[in-house]
Please model this.
Amino acid sequence: MTIRSRAPLLALLGLLAACPASAQQGAEVTITGRCERLVIGGLDITQNCKEQLVNTVSRGRTTFDFAAWDGQSLSFSGAGTQHEQTEETEQLQPISLVVPGMKNKEGIVRSPAPAVGSCKFSKPEPGKTMIACEATSQGKTYAGVFITETKAGAEPGKDGAKDLPKDGSANPPKP
Model:
C-alpha cells in the first residue's frame, strides 16, 4: 500500500528495531516525505529525487529503494539479521549490495554490485524520521537521505492509501 500516513513506517521500522529475525517473512512499505540527497555512482542527482521511498524486508534482507524522476533508481540492501541498535534512538542496517537502475524503453536495467556501507534510521516515534544510506562500491559513492514526518495515532490506509503490486516487488514507482 502507498502510505501517506506514517504508521506503517513506524510498524516496519519498529519490526526491524525490535527483532530483525521476525521481519524475515516479508513486508513492504512505500512512504512519502522529502528526499534530501541522492548520489548514484558519485553523481549527485538530488534535484531529480522523488518524494517517496520503498522499504522492503524479505527473505532475511532489508532494502531501501530511492527513485528519481529521470528514470534512475538506487537500492541499498543488506542482511536484516545484521541489523543493530547503535544508540537508544538510532538503528543501523549494514549494506552489502547497491543496485543502481535506469529505466529505458525495454524496462528497467539494474546493475547490482557488492558494496560496503550502512543505512541509519531513527527509532520510530512521533516526529521526523530520517533514513540515511551511504555505501561505496568499486570506488564509487552511493548515498540517499530521506526524511518523513511521523504522526502519533496515524492510521494505516488513511490519506488516500492504495495497493502496491502483489508480486512483492520493491521497484520504485513509475513517473
Observations:
- The longest helix spans residues 7-18.
- The chain has one helix and 13 strands.
- The radius of gyration is 15 Å.
